[in-house]
Structures are given as structure tokens and as C-alpha cells.
Amino acid sequence: GMHPAVGLLLFLGTLLYAYVEALVKLLLPARRKAVRGELVLVTGAARGLGRATAREFARLQSRLVLWDVEAHGLKETATECEGLGAAVHTFVVDCSKREEIYSAAEKVKKDIGDVSILVNNAGVITAADLLSTQDHQIEKMFEVNILAHIWTTRAFLPTMMNNNHGHIVTVASAAGHFVTPFMVAYCSSKFAAVGFHKALTEELSSLGKDGIKTTCLCPVFMNTGFVKNPST
Predict the structure, then answer these.
(1) Residue range 120-131: average pLDDT?
(2) Which residues lie closer than 8 Å to 113 by C-beta, 6 or more apart?
């Protein structure tokens, strides 16, 4: 394997590059995508990054469809977004269950309209060594962290393809690029999410669907209440 010091240098280099890139973008802002009136679906919208993302789209006057397994936090997010003047629809959806995803997606298409921006943000994490992690925890990480991305994309991509218009956002993790012990299953699922994003991007390009954009977010550490005492 790679010497730990080399790994650290690579990581710091990548981090530095990201900061420089962010600084350049801050000083030379690109024209922001106009998202007013677009129908935006955010999974995992009850807390953390999902809630912050929903709030930002609400400020930009998008219409919102918010999914989460946790009804109380979901309602709070919806209230906040409505306070910002956005039209909001909420669905209690367990993103570890394919049937729930597909049936909620059908309701959205039938009752609300065409989702043009899909933010696959729902995620779960268990931090433990591989042998202490339980089978069902490993399955759930793959169900939510990668399979849910695939089911939601399959549900909403056909309309985006027909219109050659849309945007698919994959919220992965820095753990989709750099591994860390005591998170073997989590890192594996996040590597899969990054791979999904890259392959989907290539496929859309091969199909000439230049109106469908893709973005991959890889947050480093996020205080979402998932990890009680993150040691890092």
C-alpha cells in the first residue's frame, strides 16, 4: 500500500486545490444557474446538508419536494422553506426501501410534476470496525448511500431525457475518495456513489444529453447527528 505520509500529502494537496478553486470561484463568480420555478427534489431533507440545501433552493424560488424518513424534522424544514416563500411538498420516505422510493416518485410525477433537479442527499453511517458492524447495518448503508441514488435516478431521468433538461446531484463524501479505518462499509458505499456519478456523467455525455447536468458533492465532515463523537 501507499505510505501513510504520502496519502496525507495527497489529501492535503487535494484539499489545498479545492480551497484555491473555491477562492477563484468566489473572486470570479460564474453566472449562477437560474432555478426559479424548477421542481427540486431533495432526499434526506429533515436535517443537516439536506435541510440547508432545501433552504437555499427555497431562497432561489424553486418549487420543492422534500423526502425524509423522519417526519418531525421534515416538517420543520418544510415550514422554514415555506417561510421563505417556496411551495413545498413533503413525503415520508424510507430511502432504504426501493418500493417506497418508486411509489413516492409515482405520486410526485402524477400530482406535482416533472422533477428537473434531483438532489440525492440521504445517507446513513455506522462507524465501527468491519467485524463489529452488523450485517443489517452494512446492507442499510448500501441501500441508502448508493442504491437509493440509482432508484431515484431511474424514476426521474426518463423525463429529463425527453426534455434534455435536468440536473442530478450526488451527495457522496470525502470517504468516496480517501479511506479511513472503522468505516469500511461506509467508505465502500461512498466509493460506489462517486463511481455512479462518474459513470452516469459519461453515459449522459455519450447519449448527447448535454442539457442534463451532474454534480458530485464530497463533504469532508458534517455534523448531522449521525456520528455521536467523531474522533477526527
Answers:
(1) 94
(2) 39, 63
Q: What are phi and psi of 179, to 5 degrees?
A: -90, 160
Q: Is residue 54 part of a domain?
A: yes
Q: Is 186 a catalytic residue?
A: yes
CATH number, residue 135: 3.40.50.720
More confidently predicted of 19 and 200:
200
> How many domains, in total, are found in the chain?
2
Residue 107 lies in a domain: yes
Q: Does residue 31 surpass a pLDDT of 70?
A: no
Q: Which of 17, 19, 102, 186 is catalytic?
A: 186
